[in-house]
Amino acid sequence: MSDRTDSYAIAVAAVAGAEGALESVADELHQFARALETNDDLRNTISDRSIPAGRRLGVVSEVLSDAHPMTANLVNMIVGADRANEIVAIADAVVKQAASSRGEQVAEVRSAVALTEDQISRLAAALGNAVGGSVDVKVTVDPAVMGGIVAQIGDTIIDGSVKTRLDKLKERV
Amino acid sequence: MSIILAASSLLAVEEGAVDEAPNPIIPEWNEVIWGGLAFLILFVLMTKYAYPAVKKAMDDRAVKIQGDIDAAETARSEAEQLRADYDAKLAEAKAEASRLIDEARQEAEAVRAERIAAIDGEIAEKRAQADADIAAAQDRALQEMRGQVTALAVGAAERIVESNLDAAAQTQLVDNFINRVGSQN
C-alpha cells in the first residue's frame, strides 16, 4: 500500500470517527469495495476520467443511496480527487484501522450463502480462538466458493471451501 | 607338166653346178686358216677381256641380287619383329583394358551393393520412426482421452456436489468449519 492510500485511509477513518460513524462507514466501505471488485461496469464507470465528474458522483450516490451519508460523501471525495482506482485499497485500510482501533483483527470471510447472526458470532469466536485475539468478521457472499467458508486474517488463510476440496481431488486424479 | 619339166631341168643344173662351184659344206684351206686365226684371236680377246668383264658383271649382278635378297630378308625379319612387338603391345593393351573394365565393373557393383544396403538401412530407420510416431500419437490420444474423461468425471462430481448442496448442507458445512477452526490453536 502506498503512502497516499494510507493517508487517505487515515483521513477517512478520522472523519468517520469524528461523526461517530466509523463502524457503519467501515462496513459500508467494505461492501462497496467488494461490489467494485465483482462489478466491472461500476468500476470502469467510476474510474473513467473521460466521463464528467458530476456523472460519476451521481452514480456513486445512487449506489450508496441506502448507505450512511458519510460513506457516500467520503467515496465522492475520493472519486472527485480522481483516485477512484484506489477505493478498494483505501476501503480495506479503513476497515483494518476501524478494527485495530477496537483491538481487533479483520477476518475476511467468503461464504457461498449468507450467514445468520448466530453463525457469524460463533465464527468470530472460533476465529478469535484460532488467532488469539478478537476478530471483526466481514462476510462476503461468493458463489465461487460453492460451499463452506474461506477465511483470511492478515496473511493467514483458512480454506474450508468445497471448491478447494474438489480442486484437490482433480489434482490427485 | 611344164612344172615337172622345169623342176627336172633345175636339178640337172644343180648337179652340174656341183662340179664347177665351190663345195658349200667343206670349206677351203685359207678360209679354214683365216677362220681359225680369227677364231683364236677372238678367243684370246674374249678370254682376256670379254669373259672377265662379263663374269664380273654377272658376279656383280649376283652379289647385288644377293644383297637385295639379304636386305629384303633383314627387312622382313625386322617387319616381323615389329609385328610381333605390335601384337604383344596390342595384347597388353587389350589385357589392360579388360582389367580396367573388370575393375570398373567391380567398383560399380560395390557401389550398387552399398547404396542398396544404405537404402535398406534408411527404409528400416524410416519404418522404425513411423512406428515410433504412431506409438507416440496413440499415447498422446490416450492421454488426451484420459484427461477428458477425468475432466468429465470431475465435472460431473462437481455438479453432483453443487446440486446436493441444499440449505441444510450449507449450514452443516459452516458449522463444520466453525468447529474445526475453533478447535485449532
Summarize the structure.
Chain A has 173 residues and is of the alpha+beta class. Chain A folds into two domains: 3-98, Peroxidase, domain 1 (Orthogonal Bundle); 103-172.
Distance between the termini of chain B: 203 Å
Count of individual beta strands of chain A: 4
CATH topology of the largest domain in chain A: Peroxidase, domain 1
Sequence of secondary-structure elements of chain A: HHHHHHEHEEEH
> Largest interface, counted with CB-CB under 8 A?
A-B, 25 and 24 residues
Query: What is the CATH architecture descriptor of the largest domain in chain A?
Result: Orthogonal Bundle
Overall structural class of chain B, as computed from helix and strand content, comes to mainly alpha
Shape of chain A: globular
Give the spatial strand order of the biggest sheet of chain A: 2-1-3-4
Gross morphology of chain B? rod-shaped
Number of domains of chain A: 2
Quickly count the helices of chain B.
Answer: 3
Low-confidence stretches of chain A: none
The portion of residues forming beta strands of chain A comes to: 5-15%
Q: What is the averaged pLDDT score of chain A?
A: 86
Q: Structural class from helices and strands of chain A?
A: alpha+beta
Itemize the secondary structure elements and their pairings.
The complex is a heterodimer of chains A (173) and B (185).
Chain A: H1 3-18, H2 22-38, H3 40-47, H4 53-63, H5 69-80, H6 87-101, E1 105-111, H7 117-131, E2 135-141, E3 149-153, E4 156-159, H8 162-172
Parallel strand pairs in A: 1-2
Antiparallel strand pairs in A: 1-3, 3-4
Helix pairs in contact in A: 1-2, 1-5, 1-6, 2-6, 3-4, 4-5
Chain B: H1 2-20, H2 29-164, H3 167-183
Notes on the structure:
The complex is a heterodimer of chains A (173) and B (185). Chain A has 173 residues and is α+β, with helices and mostly antiparallel strands. Chain A is 61% helix and 13% strand. Chain B contains three helices and no strands. Chain B is 93% helix and 0% strand. Chain B has a domain at 27-139. Chain B is mostly helical. The longest helix of chain B is centred in the middle third of the chain and has 136 residues, at 29-164. Chain B has helices at residues 2-20, 29-164, 167-183. The interface between A and B is medium-sized, with 25 and 24 residues.
